[in-house]
Write a structure and sequence with these properties.
About 75% of the residues lie in helices and about 0% in strands. By secondary structure, it is mainly alpha-helical.
Length: about 425
């Protein structure tokens, strides 16, 4: 049962422009502040974790393995996380998971500050963090659906992505400054403080914003969610397209770390610059998608995917860090547009009683592919270089998207054709003054 706040009367002037329409909802504004802080902490922690592993091992493969270990719980628990989100109040789940993130980030900080940190210890903490995210992600997305009305859902998803990408700009910038000035342990400590904000927001929200129904048993619910996802084209095909990019894009921060270290020899400052450029593009993409009101179609997802593949191809050809940083803004914008469009289509076409499980399935495909891609990309980066890895990140998903688009076109009996268009141009002429 939805408990979203009612829409303001039609005669009431909107306080926010169209791109921020969902912010009329006070509960959503509170959540947005919490998610901005959480995104900042996540990116700060990820930057510090990647750099810590790379400095301990001097091996991109090790960075990829740790990333894969952090994503592994998504493969094992992601679908069950969706069932949990359909069973228990999402507000309570978000409160517990963000508190756990805070504790784990503090553990990272204390371990790093001790000066005796080992890679296996970092891996264990990364796995624990992955377990938390496997439960947190479906609940967080389902909570959003409970908070805003359906007409504002796409806008709300875009603004959540906007907040997350703002965090992706603030996090690496602040984390890089802390790492260079004080040390990696301070970046982990700042991430722990950031996670306090979403936990506090979840604690202050009224219980009425959460669902009170109890779903089916988790095991039965997982199977039901999988069947629905496989049989529903607006869930299946966006998930597969996003998953093909997730194999490469989830691990893109590790690839950018190698770019900064080996290609440009720019250290943590270079890693922060490339991460911020990617986030700036994602920020632009979130603002653009927040303004879109046209109905979503599968062809929209396919078009966004091909634009992302083109942006990755151009980025792979960049020979200076400045050019790469500029092209990464295009990568970030197109990537965000793809993720937002796919997630919106999945959520808007899923029945309420299965939403948590279907979101869990969608995230399972996306992050699961990233988990599988972690070790593979680490080996590719180590033997072929970061540039060749980025080139593969463009070519392989583009091929998969083309195959899916061709299949959908055949089912719809469509083909590529040429149409005639007319363009009206203004020209100077004399007219009466009146």
């Amino acid at each position: 049962m939805s408990t979203a706040e009612p829409a303001p009367p039609a005669t009431t002037p909107a306080r926010y422009p169209r791109a921020f329409a969902s912010m009329e909802n006070r509960t959503f504004r509170m959540l947005l502040v919490g998610w901005l802080a959480a995104g900042t902490g996540y990116w700060m922690q990820l930057l510090a974790q990647n750099w810590l592993v790379l400095t301990l091992t001097n091996s991109p493969s090790a960075v990829g393995l740790v990333t894969a270990a952090q994503l592994l719980p998504t493969l094992l628990l992601g679908l069950h996380g969706g069932a949990i989100a359909d069973t228990f109040p999402c507000r309570r789940i978000v409160l517990v998971t963000n508190s756990a993130k805070c504790v784990l980030a503090a553990a990272f900080a204390m371990l790093t500050a001790s000066g005796h940190v080992e890679v296996w210890e970092v891996t264990c903490l990364a796995i624990a963090l992955g377990v938390v995210y496997a439960i947190d992600s479906p609940a967080r997305h389902s909570f959003l659906t409970e908070t805003v009305q359906a007409s504002h859902l796409r806008n709300a998803i875009s603004l959540v992505s906007l907040a997350f990408q703002l965090g992706a700009m603030i996090g690496p910038a602040l984390g890089g400054v802390l790492m260079v000035t004080f040390g990696t342990d301070y970046a982990f400590g700042a991430a722990a403080i950031a996670y306090v904000v979403p936990a506090t927001v979840a604690a202050r929200l009224p219980s009425a914003t959460s669902r009170t129904h109890v779903s089916a048993a988790p095991r039965t619910g997982v199977r039901e969610g999988l069947r629905y996802a496989i049989r529903t084209p607006t869930v299946l095909w966006p998930s597969l397209i996003v998953g093909s990019f997730g194999f490469f894009m989830v691990n893109l921060p590790a690839t950018l770390t190698t770019f900064a270290k080996d290609e440009f020899d720019s250290g943590p400052t270079g890693v922060a610059l490339l991460s911020i450029s990617l986030a700036a593009g994602s920020l632009l993409g979130a603002l653009l998608t927040a303004r879109r009101t046209r109905p979503l179609r599968l062809r929209t997802i396919a078009g966004s995917a091909m634009l992302l593949a083109l942006a990755l191809l151009l980025a792979a050809a960049a020979h200076t860090q400045t050019i790469l940083a500029l092209l990464l803004t295009a990568v970030g914008a197109t990537y965000l547009a793809l993720l937002t469009s796919a997630q919106s289509l999945v959520q808007l076409t899923t029945t309420d009683t299965l939403r948590g499980r279907v979101i869990g399935t969608h995230l399972f495909v996306f992050l699961g592919s990233g988990c599988a891609g972690g070790p593979a990309l680490g080996l590719l980066t180590e033997h072929l270089g970061a540039r060749a890895t980025l080139l593969l990140a463009s070519a392989i998903p583009a091929l998969i998207t083309t195959i899916i688009a061709h299949h959908l076109a055949r089912l719809a009996n469509l083909r590529v054709g040429l149409t005639t268009i007319s363009v009206q141009l203004q020209r100077p002429t004399l007219v009466p003054r009146s």
